[in-house]
Structure formats: C-alpha cells, structure tokens
Design a protein that fits this description.
Blueprint lengths: L3 H17 L4 H10 L5 H11 L7 H40 L1
Length: 98
C-alpha cells in the first residue's frame, strides 16, 4: 500500500490533470455552486421545502435568507479573529514574562 504522502501526491496530480482538461470550468462547477448557500437557488429550494413562504414571495425571502446567513458567518468570523488575536496576545505576554 502506498504511503499517505504518495497517495496525496498522486491525487494532486490527478486533480491538476483533470482541471487542465476541463474546457468549461463554470459548467463543471455549476452543480456545486447551485447547491451552496452562496446561490439564491439554494435558498429558494430550502424555502419551498419548508412550505411557509408564499411562492410569489420566495425570491425576496431567499435573498433575505442568504443575506442573514452571510451576516451570521461574518459575525462568527469576526469573533474567531478576536479570539485568535486575544490568544496570541496572551501567549506573547506569557512568553515575555517567562
């Protein structure tokens, strides 16, 4: 059996070869993009599945749902950066006092 490093190297070669032979990158990634929270289609399908929002209101509700999710992610990212900054500062203070 190949080592993890050799399997990883072989996989990277395969990925780069595959992308080098891809004529239309947008078409190749379209299904994943449509299935991600970045896409309005994703939010529209979720809202339709919930069945709470009227059909004529789904486009606007999907835009609101996507905006809310992106703002949640931005807040979480800011909190993580704050935690990391605090941890680095505390580590630097401990190192300086040691």
């Amino acid at each position: 059996m190949a080592s993890p490093e050799r399997r990883s190297a072989a996989a990277k070669i395969a990925v780069h070869t595959s992308w080098a032979r891809t004529a239309d990158r947008s078409a190749r990634t379209a299904p994943a993009t449509a299935a991600s929270p970045v896409s309005l289609a994703y939010w529209e399908s979720r809202l339709r599945a919930e069945g709470v929002v009227r059909e004529q209101d789904i486009p606007k509700a999907a835009a609101n749902a996507r905006s809310a999710e992106m703002r949640r992610r931005a807040l979480a990212s800011a909190a993580a950066r704050r935690r990391n900054r605090t941890a680095k500062q505390e580590a630097a203070q401990q190192a300086a006092s040691a």
